[in-house]
Design a protein that fits this description.
Length: about 900
């Protein structure tokens, strides 16, 4: 390929990205002054900013050569990145504690004292006082979030954030405490256990499958009326998606009916167990029957649609099935849109559901960590995000472990499809896989059943991942694939060579020109930060050699840019086939959400043989107007010389969603449409339906009950008082919903099939003497079922008094004395230390009979003796016990 073409591809991509955004003088503000400039430019928006789910950024932490397994949640507004001070200090072993907007301690060395008081916008570093702009520090989620550059300055370290790779690099001239600890552990036991510090563990709460539960369902009803020169027509559509427990299984129902009758019907039953306890000795984690989908087998099958059949799998739920690519598929109701981001770069968009589903097929996985975000946009302005992380090294099966997956299906013509996959971990760096596939292929002589046997090995050494796969077909030839992936600094490189000997499959069909060899090269890198932020770049090369001697050469280039809340991606492809003129085309996509404004646009264009625009599309959503959200659309096809205008109003609040709108095109065709949608979830305790404008059928649900446990037995009994206005945290995330007067909180929209931590939000406990009997539970939600969890709250008491020392006939309060609360069995259940004047408080003491005393060990150390111990009773009627004074006497 001539070098001028390559230059043309890169230059055109970059110019399109740059033309869509204003120039700026520096990278995202890692300097407090630049953050202040951004704040001032935005008026009061930064001061009024409150975090949304869409502002959350999950970052991997790297320090020197180490990558911490723990990730950290940061918030972004405009170009400001806020990092949690307490969370970062915990992961880096910094001696800084955060409590109710105040942080204190020291950084690495005790002389580097640190104190932060957000109520006064004051920070003390090494005893020197200073102030900071209020909008650079936020108290959120029981932590203090600080703008990244400002926090780095305070901690005397560089915090370099790369949103595209979802990483934060921590660099410090002084050795961080956890690195020093690792060196000590290496010398002692060569252990790196600090990097595997897991999440806090709570008791597991299991709920068995039931014979029948009341279903959860999402319903959409739509009608469209179209007027054209040839007359008018009416289209009706009803879509129902329901989930429930049925016959001790999870059931999933999908029905689409139009004005001609049933258009699509699917039903699936199955079970999921993340711990692999299904089907006895088979130790399956998942099985399904009814309408199922099969996993793609490289070089043989293509991602297919759901068909009648059955499947069983022991693979961990959600595990990537292929090391170099992933398929994102799920339910997508009419009127919804979905964007796919990889490492914060927009790489895909789908608007029209296919059989009620979104389906991003064969999404490449880069060497190293891949952070994907699925962003869903509802017809009423809803925004939902789903995060998934993949690492190509996770494709290796651990040493000694093995997984299998089998499926059997029949297509609409009753042709059988059978796939079986088995993986086994040979060593810590090497695993093997075997696939057996039987599928029908359409050939010139009719449908022929092909039977394939594939065997492969995958190995990982340092920065190199290599795989080899050999395939044999009993009806055609064979195939060999060699694949290499590596990383050099921030650049990932993928090389693949596929040799085909008369090989036929769904991917390499007999109806196309036979391919003898396919070579692929992929490079993912970035243009370094300069005037603009870092710009990720993907370069691709593909060469097909045909059996007749001809060839196809394709060059591709993708540039992504994220700036001021705009996500932009431009892709260009140049193709040359032997004896045919070269062609080149491209697409530019833009998406943003600035304040209440949402904007999405796309340009499709050709470069060769003619340089021209082919299509322009733009959607503008200016925000909410009362209960409605309005959006405007424009789509212009230059090739068809057709322009379409659209306007839609969407009801965005309440128990149901309602949208109506109209479209008009330059052919004088007019369409009016109305869409009504609602979701119904069933609250099992109150035995009532709860309507919601959002989807509920495909999500997990929780019914949490909070009550003041009078007899403190942990069980809800008659006489226990329900507690309202109590909230929970789901995996540490904040929820605004609260329990009602019955003490019940019904929560939907929880990601299914994931181990999920449910904890009480402590700030919602109104009485300071309330004590949580259960810190939290871990559950695995499933669609169509509300998990029932009780959270008893115990009433506690508070004891105060003063410790006096009698010396030389004088009594005075004495500080730093340890006071113990002892139960009737002699167990010490709480301790505290006296203040400088001898005053002490014992808080959150359970109800019961106790004694209060000074610690015996301290009496001996101080050389004094106790003159008294005091007995007391804490009851729900008298939770406060004051004036419990203790007296000491010098020996």
């Amino acid at each position: 390929m001539p070098s001028k073409s390559v230059i043309l591809i890169s230059a055109s991509s970059l110019l399109l990205c740059l033309a869509a955004v204003p120039a700026r003088a520096a990278d995202t503000p890692l300097d407090p002054s630049s953050a202040s400039d951004a704040r001032q430019a935005g008026g009061t928006e930064a001061n009024e900013w409150l975090p949304r789910d869409t502002d959350l950024r999950i970052l991997e932490i790297r320090v020197d050569a180490y990558t911490l397994d723990n990730v950290i949640g940061a918030y972004q507004y405009q170009d400001v990145i806020l990092l949690p001070l307490g969370g970062l200090a915990y992961l880096l072993d910094l001696a800084i504690d955060v409590d109710e907007g105040v942080a204190g301690g020291f950084v690495i060395r005790e002389k580097n004292t640190f104190h932060l008081d957000t109520s006064r916008n004051e920070v003390l570093l090494k005893g020197r006082s200073g102030h900071y702009p209020a909008d650079l520090v936020k108290v959120l989620d029981d932590d203090i979030y600080v703008e990244s550059a400002l926090l780095g300055k305070w901690l005397d370290m560089a915090l370099d954030i790369d949103l595209y790779s979802s990483r934060i690099w921590v660099r410090s001239e002084e050795k961080l405490p956890f690195l020093a600890r690792i060196e000590r552990e290496r010398r002692i036991s060569k252990s790196l256990s600090h990097l595997r510090r897991g999440d806090e563990q709570y008791p597991r709460h299991y709920e068995p499958y039931r014979g029948y539960t009341v279903p959860f369902f999402d319903q959409t009803l739509s009608m469209a009326k179209q007027y054209t020169d040839s007359g008018e027509s009416t289209t009706l559509l009803s879509t129902t998606h329901a989930t429930a427990d049925l016959f001790l299984h999870e059931s999933n129902w999908y029905l689409t009916v139009n004005d001609e009758g049933v258009d699509d019907f699917r039903v699936t039953l199955g079970r999921t167990d993340t711990e692999g306890e299904l089907l006895g000795s088979m130790r399956a984690r998942e099985y399904r029957f009814g309408h199922v989908s099969e996993a793609r087998v490289g070089l043989i099958t293509l991602p297919g649609q759901m068909e009648y059949g059955a499947m069983v799998s022991s693979y961990p739920v959600g595990l990537q099935m292929e090391y170099d690519r992933h398929r994102f598929i799920g339910e997508l109701l009419p009127g919804w849109e979905v964007e796919l981001y990889r490492n914060n770069a927009l790489i895909g968009y789908q608007q029209t559901p296919i059989d009620g589903q979104y389906d991003f097929q064969d999404v490449p996985l880069l060497f190293g960590s891949n952070h994907f975000r699925l962003v869903f946009y509802g017809p009423r302005g809803e925004i939902r995000e789903v995060d998934q992380r993949f690492d190509v090294t996770q494709a290796l099966t651990r040493k000694g472990e093995h997984y299998y997956r089998a499926s059997m299906m029949a297509d609409e013509d009753d042709n059988e499809r059978v796939t079986f996959q088995y993986d086994y971990g040979l060593t810590s760096n090497l695993s093997t896989t075997v696939n057996v596939v039987s599928i029908p292929l359409e050939e010139t002589t009719g449908v022929v059943q092909h039977n394939y046997l594939a065997a492969g090995m995958i190995g990982y050494w340092d920065a190199l991942l290599a795989s080899v796969t050999v395939i044999d077909d009993d009806k055609s030839g064979s195939a060999l694939e060699v694949d290499l992936q590596t990383r050099i600094d921030a650049t990932t490189i993928g090389l693949s060579d596929i040799f085909l000997a008369d090989f036929v499959s769904e991917e390499y069909t007999s109806t196309t020109k036979p391919i003898a060899r396919r070579s692929l090269v992929t490079i993912n890198t970035a243009i370094p930060t300069s005037v603009l932020p870092r710009i990720p770049v993907t370069l691709g090369y593909k060469r097909n050699q045909f059996s007749d001697g001809g060839e196809l050469v394709e060059l591709s280039n993708q540039l992504s840019l994220s700036l001021y809340g705009f996500a932009m991606t431009n892709t260009v492809s140049h193709q040359k086939i032997t004896d045919l003129p070269a062609t080149a085309n491209g697409a530019f996509n833009l998406s943003t959400r600035v304040g209440n404004l949402r904007l999405r646009g796309s340009l499709a264009y050709t470069i060769k043989p003619l340089s021209e625009l082919s299509n322009i599309a733009l959607t503008v959503d200016p925000g909410s107007f009362g209960d409605y959200r309005v959006n405007f659309g424009l789509n212009h096809s230059l090739l068809a010389d057709l322009t379409e205008y659209s306007v839609r109003a969407n009801k965005i609040t309440g128990k149901y969603g309602l949208s109506f709108g109209a479209t008009y095109n330059s052919n004088d065709e007019v369409t009016f449409g109305v869409n009504l949608s609602f979701g119904f979830g069933y609250e099992p305790r109150r035995k009532e339906w709860l309507a919601d404008a959002n989807r509920v059928a495909s999500q997990g649900s929780l019914s949490a009950r909070f009550f003041l446990d009078a007899n403190q037995d942990g069980i809800y009994n008659e006489g226990d008082e329900p507690l309202e206005n109590i909230g929970v945290r789901v995996n540490g995330g904040y929820s605004h919903q609260r329990s009602g007067e019955e003490g019940i909180l019904f929560l939907t929209g929880i990601q299914p099939y994931n181990l999920t931590s449910i904890t009480i939000a402590p700030e919602t406990l109104e009485d300071p003497l309330w004590r949580m009997a259960l810190d939290g539970v871990q559950v695995t939600p499933r669609p169509g079922h509300a998990i029932e969890v009780d959270f008893p709250i115990f009433m506690s008491g508070e004891i105060d008094g003063t410790v006096y020392l009698n010396k030389s006939g004088r009594e005075f309060g004495v500080g730093d004395v340890t006071v113990e609360l002892v139960d009737q069995y002699g167990r010490v259940i709480a301790t505290t230390r006296t203040a400088y004047d001898g005053f002490y408080i014992l808080s959150k003491a359970p109800l019961g009979d106790y004694r209060v005393r000074v610690s015996g060990k301290q009496l001996q150390r101080l050389g004094v003796r106790a003159m008294n111990e005091e007995s007391l009773t804490i009851s729900s009627e008298e939770p406060f016990v004051s004036g419990i004074d203790l007296y000491l006497e010098a020996e």
